[in-house]
Batch of 2 targets.
Target 1
Amino acid sequence: MDVLVTWLNQFANSLPGNISQGLIWGVLAIGVYITYKILDFPDLSVDGSVTTGAAVCAVMIINGVPVPLAMFFSFISGCLAGLCTGLMNALLGIPGILAGILTQIALYSVNLVIMGKANLPVSVDKYPLFVSSRHTATALGVGTVLPEVLKLLAVVVVIIAVLYWFFGTEYGFTIRATGCNANMSRAQGINTKKSTVVALVLSNGIVGLAGGVMVQYQGSADINMGRGAIVIGLAAVIIGDVLGRVILGKRFNFVARLAFTAVGAIIYFLVLSIVTIIGIPSEYNKLFSAVIVMIFLAVPYLRNTAKTSFRRAARNSVKMTSAGEISAEKGEGNADAD
Amino acid sequence: MLTLTDVKKTFNAGTINEKHALNGVSLDLDDGDFVTIIGGNGAGKSTTLNAIAGVWPIDSGSIIINGQNVVGMPEYKRARFIGRVFQDPMTGTAATMEIQENLALAKRRGQPRSLKWGITKKEREEFHELLKMLDLGLEDRMSSKVGLLSGGQRQALTLLMATLKKPDILLLDEHTAALDPKTAAKVLELSDRIIAENRLTAMMVTHNMAAAIKHGNRLVMMNNGRIIYDVKGKDKENLTVDILLEKFEQASGQKLDNDRMLFSKNAKE
Ligand SMILES: Nc1ncnc2c1ncn2[C@@H]1O[C@H](COP(=O)(O)OP(=O)(O)OP(=O)(O)O)[C@@H](O)[C@H]1O
Ligand SMILES: [Mg+2]
């Protein structure tokens, strides 16, 4: 009983931090949503572009660039990363997954060059950072914590609003159509290569921005901070998708999908904190992420096959024949027997 | 309106899968011509339409639409001139987008896309009226996803989309082949109506000889990547399936052994 109380306490204490983390990763996940869900392009550049956004933001802030401008450039640097993946795919014919992996690997070097070393601290004591995990410690009280969380929430809301507008425009339509049916899109006069590149640029720009916020929140840029980011992003997208479907059903529209993606990220971090609190070492975090994504991807498939699988067909078939034999023995020949 | 001159296309050149799909196709369509195209499997019917649409570059020859040689234009640029409906109902529409969104996409065919709203209120009203004409009840489901529609409904919608912005050429590639006979007849009748009302220049591939005779003002028969028979006007009106079969034997020097064509000889529609 005591253990449970301590656990609950720990969970409550870590709540603001986890919600903040969730919102930041929610931004990244919304970027992933654009490629994974709208464009139907599994883009693995993300692991690199989030770090690039962080590195650019950190270096600029350290060199005295105003924080908002530094964040803008983390967006731009992400856009450039997306452009690389897009051009490799559109102009050189490299399959999407491979193009993303190549960008990701190349960015590892680029990020090291930008940062100059593997770990670059940006302390909130020295710079006027947008957000900091220092300000989300529960002990500081609602007055300090709440504005910090609200700032992050505002970022998410603004991004959702902008994307809602963009995907409602003529150009946004072409990206959605490209992701859904490239043949039809070309027949409608859409340059599908261009729309693919634009979507990748936008997606990675948002991921880069997430990196820019993340680096400030954590207080340092690390060359490995993006490792596995795509898996966390996907986890958020998938958790949000399942949840949204269950809760909203038919009213699960575009805005709700993006919002639930951020909610998915928050839930991811809450669950992760529970896992940590009950004593599973943090080494297992990535394993845990992979397992979550695996489960959520597998459930729809398994639910489907549970209804129609060969094994089930075989079982039913056996049942039928044995039932037939029994009724034949009894001489009843009941065709309706199940 | 449309002039093909000696169009040639070989797939997989230089490999063991080399296939001379088009061996010099020439065809001259007048404004308002409605051509039906028949021929056995692999005759090059779809390839001809794909060549016009620019799905891939041709090897040689010229394709002139409205006085402009389009051979160097990629598919998405040629879309400005061309409306298309495909055999597979899944191909012509975006399943995850709404009916009205699909129509809005089609209304901007061949135009540069801007950052204005993808669909306006006025267009919604316009689409409502247009969908009513189809008589499929789609006007009440404008914000449903196209993926929820049946094959016939999707083909009717695709047809509407292909002609929403008047195309210089309408290409129909066996667009009723995947539908049940009753729906196929309906979609075919709708095609006829839209083509006549808008005075469109159209090409329709079909495996159904009776339909090929009944529809359009001109008929083209293909074999081995060539046009082997081309008939229009009075001669076309007087065609019968038997004459067509005979022409095929004469021109190709082979008996028509295509099951699908023989089968559809007796089909009503
Ligand atoms: N993209 C392609 N790559 C390789 N070969 C192709 C391609 N498209 C068509 N072909 C080949 O070209 C030939 C002509 O095909 P086409 O699709 O034009 O025939 P069709 O007259 O439309 O026949 P069907 O009645 O079966 O639709 C066939 O041998 C086909 O295999
Ligand atoms: Mg064909």
Target 2
Amino acid sequence: MANKPRVGIFDFTGCEGCELNQLNFEDQLLDILEHVEIVEWREAMDGQAEELDIAFVEGSLSTPDCIKRIHEIRRKSKVLVALGACAVQGGMNALKNIRPIEQVREEVYGQDKYLFPTLPALPISSVVKVDVNVRGCPMTQLEFLKVFTSLVMGKSPIEPGNSVCTECKLKDNECVFEKGMICLGPITRAGCDAQCPSFGQYCTGCRGLVPEPNVEAMEEILVAHGLSMDDARKKLQLFNANQLEGVS
Amino acid sequence: MARFYLEKGKVAAFIAHLQSQKTVYAPHRKGRNAFAFAPVERPQDVVLDYPRTVSSIKKYFLPPREELLSFNLAENTCAQPAVAPLDAVFLGVHSYDVHAVLKLDHNFVTGNPERNYLTRRQGALIVGVGFTPDRFHFSGSVGIPAGDTTGCDLFLHPCEGGYALEVLTPAGEKLVAGFKLPAHTSGLPAAAPFQQHIYVPQAKLKDVFAHNYDNAVWEEEAEKCMSCGTCNLVCPTCYCFDVEDAVDITVTRGSRERRWDGCMLRSFTEVAGGEVFREEPAARQRHRVYRKFKYISDETGEPWCVGCGRCTASCTADISIVSIVNRLVNDYDAVKA
Amino acid sequence: MTKHELIAPAGTKDLYLPVMAEITDVRQMTPLEKLFEIRLPGGVDLGHRPGQFVEVSLFGVGEAPISISSSPTKKGAFDLGIRKVGMLTEMIHRMQPGERIGIRGPFGSGFDMTKFKGKDVLVIAGGIGLVPLRSLINYVLDNRADFGRLVICYGSKSDTDLLFEDERRAWEQDPRVEFHLTVDHGSPAWSGRTGVITTLIPGLDLDLPNTLACVCGPPIMYRFVLLALKSKRLPEENIYMSLERRMKCGVGKCGHCQINGSYVCQDGPVYHYPDIKALREAL
Ligand SMILES: Cc1cc2nc3c(=O)[nH]c(=O)nc-3n(C[C@H](O)[C@H](O)[C@H](O)COP(=O)(O)OP(=O)(O)OC[C@H]3O[C@@H](n4cnc5c(N)ncnc54)[C@H](O)[C@@H]3O)c2cc1C
Ligand code: SF4
Ligand code: SF4
Ligand code: SF4
Ligand code: SF4
Ligand code: FES
């Protein structure tokens, strides 16, 4: 390939489960490097690039400094990709949005709270335009590669809009409701190949909600399965606090 | 044709006899409370007395995911993967699922016949088995009793101590040949009654559906529905699919894959630019039910629902196709009275 | 349940296998729309009717249904007018003459031109709806003696996204064509007519029983055009319309294109209005 896309990788506040170096890429790394030139990676490289074809961004935004940096990244990047639930939905970090910010700062920073100004944990898209989402907590290698190859081909990847249930059924899985568990699969966006239900676990909704989700119906089902309305809301908010609050 | 007595103790040996001739697919336990068809490895793992499987045997003829084309991107060429006849025995299939396969046959033969489906389907032999209707089955209401043998080569009627093995076709006769069995001479026991019913004679269905397009039930059910698509994907007579291309990491090879899709999903009718032609969940619910009882039925004269109860049993929102249809019938009767 | 013979009948086509065709010409029509000329191997004709479509394929990207924009009277190649709206259409827009794409088809009903013989033809095209109807227009022009009047009403969002510049000017000049053009919002340079497409209809002088109308445009357009044609008292049996739906297979198998019980890729995209009047999801 004549002109390899110039790529930068950036991280913000996150649990690090999604960081690219956490995905076991041994087998594919050479192939990946074949297609792109990594010019900026905070983890591994010094220096900053002037212009990027693709910026991969991990983590959510929670300090004024984050906001400044993300604007800079956006300015110099042709395509901005949000990696993982924290970057896409505000992730687990967003949980603190549903508690008073003062309380969170107290808990996290104790006495030093005034030294660390924090914002609610915002998804990248609430501050700058995101072109592509790679969802999940953690994101899957499968989906990262799908998005990556699309971008290398120069096509804009399409996000799945179907429910996790569809992937569960493609695999002929036993529904975990049959085992007396609850599951957020019906209103969670597909793309992970229903990995949790396939291992007998329930879907916690880490990939975000489907477009136009019927949240009330989901809540009622959770309540019908023994959760209090409060617990039902908490289950739904785990990964989707911002979307449910209408922030993103 | 002949009827033999297959006592319980000989079932495993009989399955082994089938295995000696062809690949055998049969129901197995999957997870805690679910069953699924799978290739038989050990005859003793086969479960012949089961309520229903997650998917029907449709998955073997119209696989959940199927490569339609493979690409060589460097050369810009494509090829169709070879499709081989299954040449297999499907053992332990309930009558409604056999009917469902016959309906799929119709969809893949009429209009443009599809070679992939037909090739897989050709060699399939079916050994049906009776079942005890649970609280979701209602195939009796759509003309398919539990002991209906249509489409089967052999049929296992449950009876005292085992099964009455009914031979229905020459191919079935060949399958049994060489396995010594006594004749079954007593009558067949009456099948257990259905617990669920659609209360409408088939002749009236057409009118019922012609008059209920705007029934309030669509909106009411839509409030509970999460548009998850499960009811489509588990339905043995649903055949809609989506198609997507993928490339491998070298970006030199790729494939075009089709996979099951469903009209309850919002994206099913979405086009570039964001227009969704069947936008309202209520319209989608109606479409699903009309696909089963009106649109194809108006052409073929038969309901396209076989009463397996899967959609209802697997709907986490407890939306029941039987309740919907009975509601339509009641409302129709009330208006006509 | 009637049992079916499970052998694929002789002559069964490979439904999903595209033929590789060459792009022989690319013309930018507007910032969003390009016209591609496509040549099948050996220059064989596609053998289509006006109003039919093909599935255009780029390996590793996908497929899209695209109307055939040229008349069957054009030999050796056919035209596709493609608007850049998403993944596949963006990729196609980057292609150059000499490159190859996959083609399946032609698919769908199309216009049965034998029914149009001797009739006056009224073409009502909104925006990109002109792309499929251009096939019909050129067919009529190439067999001019077989038809009565040719009246074209073309409405566009603005004068900057008008399609088929050269041909449009030719139609305007051609005494055998009655051409009416309007734009929703004109730029300052626009001196022509402004207003939505339905405003063209009341002023038309038509021989109603002998006029067949062919309508194609964005989804919202149909209802209003129908109203206008009704108040004009054009008989319903004289109306044909080409509809668009999500499509995947193009051959009546994938289910995406359904309008109630009708498969647009088989029974449509061109419908005789009386046949879809009762379909609640149609318009
Ligand atoms: C009968 C028919 C004729 C058409 N003729 C033309 C034409 O002449 N010129 C033109 O520019 N466009 C035409 N379209 C619309 C064209 O098919 C879509 O714009 C195109 O599919 C968008 O594909 P994409 O990959 O660029 O968009 P994306 O949004 O990336 O779409 C992804 C996939 O969704 C499906 N899809 C999205 N939009 C549509 C749509 N409108 N119709 C059907 N499937 C869709 C396709 O399978 C597509 O590959 C026609 C559509 C139909 C149904
Ligand atoms: S386990 Fe969860 S994702 Fe799977 S079908 Fe059940 S509800 Fe849906
Ligand atoms: S099943 Fe749910 S929780 Fe698990 S990875 Fe998929 S979306 Fe996330
Ligand atoms: S399974 Fe139930 S909730 Fe899901 S789409 Fe069907 S009716 Fe709606
Ligand atoms: S509609 Fe429901 S009951 Fe009828 S065949 Fe389909 S899954 Fe079974
Ligand atoms: S496009 Fe697949 S059925 Fe019409």
